[in-house]
Write a structure and sequence with these properties.
elongated; disordered N terminus; eight-stranded antiparallel sheet; 5 helices; 42% strand; eleven-stranded mixed sheet; mainly beta
């Protein structure tokens, strides 16, 4: 049996159970623990208070949520750990997936630990649905949303769904959790943060996770990229992921070697989904990519602060890059891979300019570029609220995704 201890949790296969429950085997019966489901059929999760309407005959399985409305999915006083969240809505169009947001508050905090667009939270960006399975999220047939991320709390949990869109939505959901008397040890709280690259310019890294302060663990991210049409079919994914830990400023402690490398692939990218890494959407016709990496077997801990970025960088041939610049595209060559090795253009001032015919014509050139990036960062923190800014306004969230299908 595959087991993995994960910050007070145990991974068995692809499912998490709380180490607080003492569940070393699936057949254990821990003392003093109770199972609860929050749904429209039992919104308070009280014992013996489910299926009260319509004489128990599916009296309230769903609810309509109109434009501008919000609904309380969970408002529970007590100690516990959320093990699974499932939901679906009737119209999963791109605008809805970015216009509806989830907010999660732990232990009566004023500020949400999670404030993320619905689709992006559940592991896939771009305002698109697809079939996939990872250790933390899944959509078995591309019609539903599942989360298996463990979310502990000590005295209160509140989850709110807010419809900032223009459509009336029919919502079904349930939140499955274990009721505890208390946690055996101090817990870390689950957080999620969404952002996009609206403020990032040429040669500026996109911040997947702005610098968050406190002790915790970076759990991973799902990232979406919509490339600018001016770059044609040139490769976007040369950018390296960097993690700045515990006081790192100019230079990070952790750095990868390229975008597809970070998610465990190599030499360009095709669609796949695995437990800890995947690229469920690789649409080369639309030049749209959605991919993820979860640091479960390879934990990323921090003691004081953490920032995670990815370079906006691609690659192509000299003449293609010349054509992009001529068409008004933003480009800045940074290196050339030759048969003799890497030419570091940022350090070799005397190397010919890319418009000079002495610049190698048949070599791979890495260059800064500007595309539409967005990401959801998942992390645990020793506080129920963080120093991060609020979720971006709706207009910014919808940039580039309105016509996606």
């Amino acid at each position: 049996m595959n087991r993995l201890i994960f910050k007070g949790l145990i991974l068995i296969g692809c499912c998490f159970v709380s180490a607080d429950l003492g569940a070393q085997e699936l057949y254990d019966l821990p003392e003093g623990k109770e199972t609860r489901w929050v749904s429209l059929e039992n919104p308070s999760a009280e014992k013996g208070r489910g299926a009260l309407e319509n004489k128990g005959a599916k009296g309230r399985a769903s609810v309509w949520v109109g434009p501008g409305e919000k609904i309380m999915l969970m408002d529970y006083n007590g100690c516990g750990i959320i093990n699974r969240i499932w939901m679906t809505i009737i119209d999963r169009n791109p605008e809805a997936l970015r216009s509806i947001k989830l907010e999660m508050y732990w232990d009566n905090a004023d500020k949400p630990a999670v404030s993320v667009p619905l689709g992006d939270f559940f592991g896939i960006g771009l305002g698109r649905m697809t079939t996939f399975q990872s250790a933390l999220f899944s959509s078995p047939e591309g019609r539903s949303f599942n989360s298996y991320v463990p979310m502990p709390f000590t005295k209160h949990a509140r989850i709110v769904l807010v419809n900032e869109g223009r459509q009336k939505q029919l919502l079904f959901y349930d939140v499955n959790f274990t009721k505890l008397k208390k946690h055996a040890k101090k817990i870390a709280y689950f957080h999620a943060y969404w952002s996009n690259s609206a403020a990032a310019g040429l040669a500026e890294d996109f911040e997947i996770l702005p610098r968050v302060k406190g002790e915790g663990r970076f759990l991973g991210t799902n990232i979406s990229v919509i490339t600018d049409n001016v770059y044609g079919t040139t490769w976007f994914g040369e950018g390296e992921v960097k993690a700045y830990l515990d006081g790192d400023n100019q230079h990070p402690t952790l750095v990868g070697t390229g975008t597809e490398d970070y998610i465990g692939s190599a030499w360009n990218l095709g669609p796949f989904s695995q437990l800890y890494q995947g690229a469920p959407i690789v649409d080369k016709e639309k030049q749209q990519y959605a991919f993820y990496r979860y640091h479960i077997p390879d934990p990323v801990y921090f003691n004081a602060d953490c920032k995670v970025t990815i370079q906006q960088m691609g690659g192509g041939g000299r003449d293609l890059i010349r054509g992009i610049a001529k068409a008004g595209g933003k480009v800045k060559p940074i290196s050339v891979m030759t048969q003799k090795g890497m030419v570091k253009l940022m350090e070799e001032a005397g190397f010919p300019d890319i418009n000079d015919d002495k610049f190698p014509a048949d070599e791979w050139v890495n260059f800064y570029r500007v595309d539409n990036y967005s990401a959801t960062a998942y992390f645990y923190l020793d506080s129920p609220q963080s120093n991060l800014p609020a979720l971006a306004p709706l207009e910014q969230r919808l940039k580039g995704i309105k016509n996606n299908k």
